[in-house]
Amino acid sequence: MESKNLDLVKQLRHELHQHPELSNHEVWTKQHLMEFLQVHTNLELVDKGSWFYCVYHSGEGKKNLAFRADMDALPIDETLELPYGSQFPGVSHKCGHDGHCASLAGFALEVDQKGAEHNIFFLFQHAEETGDGAIQCASFIEENNIDEIFAYHNMSGMPFKSVNVIDGTAHCASKGMTIHMEGTPAHASQPETGVNPAFAIAKIIEKIPEFTASGKNKGLLLCTVIQVDIGERAFGIAASKGNLLLTIRALYEEELDQLQKNLEALAFEQAEKYGLKVSFSFTDEFPETVNHKESVDKVREVCQVKGLFLSEMTEAFRASEDFGHYTKLTKGAMVFIGNGEQYPPIHTFEYDFRDELIETAVELFKGIAEV
């Protein structure tokens, strides 16, 4: 990677870090990235509202390859003393999306200056953390006849600057599920005159280990209790309303769907038993992210040619990633570049994206663009 380009995008990364924005609020981030690419490249820019992409045109009959970066930050305070620290209290780039964007911008600079064999699409996506960004951008795949799409995520616990790959599922599917139950209130001295959801909710929680038992499922299946909110803080009133918040997670989407159905059926059963109304709501819905072997093999080939340290993963990440919406529509792969085996994990106070990963990511993407 050209040193002048690397310096430019390191500075860009620090500017993005100073101005973190939460999912679906990436207004300044998006505008700043677009202005950077307008100033430093001749690429075509396409503004899609909450997100955008730019294009290097190689010519008719060439493959259409896409590369994606996510733009959003997290609701976490910046506690590190950094010269480019977050200027916004309670918001910071503790997942490294500032680095992902800087890497993709650096790749765009190199392609614009040196050319590429294929048509290259640089996709800057909003709202990855909440799971609703990629599904809004998915039309990009069909509208542009994308043949293949790639992305990377920085990840701690892996050798520094290593490229880590896995065939098949790379990230589990997950969603937040709320079970709302409603009965009727009563005086605490006469609970039998009301309908209390506490016992029904307790029965649901009690049943969770049976639903998720490893011997009954093909892959990992988890149901994590996030919050139990029943009744009011008033000792004279028996509870009449309650919410059970769960995160359900699975290696395979079909088993996630079955877990949801099991929980819903049990909730209806308990509601009928106790005379309750029941309803459900869902949030932060992520698909399984499945890598196509052909795409991962290209990453392996590039690492061998460029001398990048390649590591084969043995299992998928439990944490979710909305990139799977793209690989449902076309070939592609999510790969991981290591922050270091002892480096602070993402989503923690101690974490900050390591600028050294930018060049590794750019060289990897350049290699893929040449295959």
Annotate the secondary structure layout.
Layout (H helix, E strand, L loop, with lengths): L2 H16 L8 H14 L3 E4 L4 E5 L7 E7 L26 H18 L4 E7 L8 H4 L1 H5 L4 E9 L6 E3 L2 E4 L1 E10 L3 E2 L10 H14 L9 E10 L6 E2 L2 E10 L2 H22 L2 E10 L2 E3 L1 H14 L3 E3 L11 H4 L3 E10 L16 H14 L1
Parallel strand pairs: 3-4, 3-5, 5-16, 6-15
Antiparallel strand pairs: 1-2, 2-4, 6-16, 7-14, 8-12, 8-13, 9-11, 10-12
The best one-word shape is: elongated
H/E element string?
HHEEEHEHHEEEEEHEEEHEEHEHEH
How widely separated are the two ends?
Answer: 18 Å
User: What is the strand content?
Assistant: 25-35%
Number of helices: 10
Strand order of the largest sheet: 1-2-4-3-5-16-6-15
Number of DSSP E strands: 16
Please give the oligomerization state of what you see: single chain
The largest sheet is: 8 strands, mixed
- Compute the gyration radius: what is it? 23 Å
Structural class comes to alpha/beta
CATH topology of the largest domain: Aminopeptidase
What would you say the CATH architecture of the largest domain is? Answer: 3-Layer(aba) Sandwich
* Helix amount: 25-40%
How confident is the prediction overall: mean pLDDT? 97
> What is the CATH C level class of the largest domain, in words?
Alpha Beta
